[in-house]
Amino acid sequence: MKKIFTATLGTETNTFASIPTGLGLFEETCLYRNGSYGKNLPMFGAPLAVWRQRAEAKGWTVVESLCAFAQPAGKTVKKVYEAFRDEIVADLKAAMPVDAVFLSMHGAMVAEGYDDCESDLLAHVRKVVGPDVPVGVELDLHCNVGEGTMRDATVLVLFKEYPHVDVSDRADDLFAVMEGAIEGRTKPVMATWDCKMIGVFHTTRQPMRGFVDKLQAMEGKDGVLSLSIAHGFPWSDIKEMSSRMIVVTDNDKAKAEKLAKELGQEFFAMREATQPPYVTLDAAMARASTHNLPKPMVLADVSDNAGGGAASDSTFILKALLERKVKDAAIAMLWDPGAVKLAFEVGEGAELDIRLGGKLGPQSGDPIDARAKVLKLGREITVQFGGQRKGVGSIGDAAALQIEGVTVIVNTKRGQCHSLDCFTKLGVDPSTKKVVVVKSMQHFHAAYAPIASEVVYVAAPGALVPDWKQLPYTKVDKRQWPFVANPHG
Ligand SMILES: [Zn+2]
Description:
The protein has 489 residues and is α/β, with parallel strands linked by helices. The protein is 29% helix and 26% strand. The chain has 14 helices and 18 strands. The longest helix is centred in the N-terminal third of the chain and has 18 residues, at 78-95. The termini are far apart. The structure holds zinc ion. Zinc ion binds at residues 140-142, 164.
């Protein structure tokens, strides 16, 4: 009988964000030990559940360690990362001997003193299990894959879809590849090719859609076990930051290397066509003030996406809507626990003078002072994730405030707006608004595109401004597109 060891440890670190990632943020987001969540599987535990189910179906033993994930923010506090790593390693030592290790990580976790946490953790794991035990890792496609990760992981399988609707499907893929290795039927080998480009690649649109479909059609044939595109996470100032192709073949290193380069070149060739059509704040406001289609215009405030580590309290778009006197607009969610507390103090239907947002640093803009009416209040609001991504999450306590023509959802638990529930649970129907602003990079798309006449990605100022030339990189290798027109030449 085989025995596998599983664990989750991750977060996506925006090294430009000012919010530290400490123990409290893990506790608030997802922190369980040895499957202590019981039947209430947390969203970030989805791969663990897949691996357990598939292993137990084969009669294998599963030893599950930590399940820790933090909402993206700034660097992880050093002692917090080290304690989690040491806990996983101690659990692994206690579980030895094992036939395989399965890890669910993000791929862009940076801690104080550790620019590449994934490589560090994998080095520790490899030291415990030795060179021959297969170690399978599932990563978010927004990962910066370091040399250590390529060396110490046996198989890497990344999400293929952005928005990430395929977390469980890819966990299933990883299990299938690892199963062959565990049973000695296959010998996975990996190769990677650095595309040397920085970008954001939505798989909902062409040409990425077709490229992802092509990769999936190639998997499982001619000795190709798995193909992944690492999109990179540009808001991490570390030397590993880049996009790359990762190929896993059955014991054919030369083929893996050749394919990684060929597919990597194909991906690189799409660089211009794949970039999201960002518009400036001014241009977005001009369109919003004249919008008169029956369905709302949905504006994505990509620069203040909590899912990428931003504070989610920036006021640039709200201020612009108020200045332009846009009517019938709604915005979600502004993270301002103080404002929520004051709204609860006066109660539904009351008015108050309030200072909103703009508190967490220059990237949040200035706070807004306004007269607000409290439309609705809610305690511990849970929201269903949009699209096919299963699970519920909490946005904490929240209030719907009316400020002139704009309804503002303020909340106490920082998170991106990817569910219609962020509005509807506070009595606001976004589909009836003229303009809807969501603080999200792309995960809003599955839920909001169906109610929108058009979706506009706004490059407002903020911690996630999608303009690499504005980011004060010091460690990133700038011999990459778009800093260099042809880094491979
Ligand atoms: Zn991601």
